[in-house]
Design goal:
Blueprint: H1 19-40, H2 49-62, H3 66-84, H4 107-120, E1 124-130, E2 138-139, E3 144-146, E4 167-173, E5 176-181, E6 186-187, H5 189-192, E7 197-200, H6 203-216, E8 221-222, H7 228-238, E9 248-252, E10 255-256, E11 263-264, E12 267-270, E13 284-285, H8 287-290, H9 294-297, E14 300-301, E15 310-311, E16 323-328
Parallel strand pairs: 1-7
Antiparallel strand pairs: 1-5, 2-8, 3-4, 4-5, 6-13, 9-12, 9-16, 10-11, 14-15
Length: about 325
């Protein structure tokens, strides 16, 4: 595709006229930090000004892509049609033949982004340094959320910013990739010894990390010219694995609501895990975390250390709300 059309859209932030200026400042700070990381193969110390700029940029980068806007539009379309389907003035109209979206779909995710920064700051940062002949790939949605700890959970989301076992992967260059991870779940051996960088000399490990970009990309992946044949081959091999739907909506049957005398139903939306069984030698699940049954892992949330810990949804009566319909978009 044309370079001028990459990762940009005219008047994307018209809903907040000063936002473009703020992003320019944040991008400038992040660019300086990234240049230092690439030059020294070293991360800024936790809590430093450079570290805060880096964490802030990661959160906003994740929530301002075309993919983020498409997910917002999918939710708007689903919930709007759910509200309209039984309205008499829409009788005879096939709502499936129209799409309902937001004029500014990024306004919602960006409005909550500042609140997510301290949550993401609870993750530990680590730098992977690529020493192989195969470079790291990136994409038009480069900050990839995964949860190796909850692989196999398909009925709910496990990549929320406060999910137990969350991992964020962000390539900074063909030689550097930033990993943010839940230190209570994962063990990165060098990180356990107080070091913030690990050299990766295994091409299969690089291929696994690149697979995250291939699966998560909206339209395009990017790589060095030297990797053309290898990158194209991996994209072709993984084409059928790319998820066709990025949002899942679950609507339950109605049940009696004793509090109101009416009926109650649940609506649940989530983004499913990417279809990848991640295996990277430098990332291991801690033995204590492994002892937790898989179905229980999905109910846990991380919580920042200064807010305590807990679980989400663990008190929901099992089986109370039978599923009526599942929609994937």
């Amino acid at each position: 595709m044309s370079i001028k059309d990459q990762c940009s859209r005219h008047n994307l932030y018209d809903f907040a006229p000063k936002l473009e200026e703020a992003f320019s400042k944040l991008e400038g700070e992040a660019a300086t930090v990234m240049a230092r990381i690439r030059a020294a193969s070293e991360l800024p110390s936790a809590g430093s000004a450079d570290w805060v700029s880096l964490i802030s940029f990661i959160v906003f980068q994740k929530m301002r892509t075309v993919s983020a806007g498409r997910k917002t539009d999918a939710a708007t379309d689903y919930f709007a049609k759910l509200m309209l389907e039984n309205r008499p003035e829409f009788a005879g109209i096939d709502l499936d033949q129209i799409e309902i979206g937001d004029v500014y779909p990024l306004a919602i995710p960006l409005s909550v982004a500042p609140e997510m920064i301290p949550v993401v700051a609870d993750l530990q940062t680590h730098l992977f340094i690529n020493t192989t002949a195969r470079g790291f790939m990136t994409s038009d949605d480069p900050v990839v959320a995964h949860n190796q700890y909850c692989e196999g959970i398909t009925y709910r989301g496990v990549t929320g910013f406060d999910s137990r076992g969350l991992q964020l992967f962000w390539p900074l260059s063909p030689e550097h990739l930033l990993l943010l991870f839940d230190p209570d779940v994962y063990r990165v051996p060098r990180a356990d010894h107080g070091l913030n960088a690990t050299r990766i000399s295994s091409e299969p490990d690089i291929a696994q990390l690149n697979a995250l970009q291939v699966l998560n990309a909206h339209q395009n992946v990017y790589f060095e010219d030297d990797d053309l044949r290898t990158a194209e081959g991996q994209c072709a091999d993984m084409l059928r694995q790319r998820p066709k739907a990025r949002m899942v909506f679950v609507e339950t049957e109605s049940v009696p609501d004793q509090a109101t005398g009416g009926e109650s139903a649940l609506l649940h939306q989530y983004e499913p895990l990417l279809p990848l069984s991640l295996k990277v030698g430098a990332i291991r699940i801690r033995n204590a975390a492994k002892a937790v049954p898989l179905h229980q892992r999905a109910t846990l949330y991380r919580q920042s250390r200064d807010r305590g810990r807990g679980s989400s949804g663990a008190d929901m009566p099992p089986g109370r709300y039978p599923v009526k319909k599942t929609t994937r978009r």
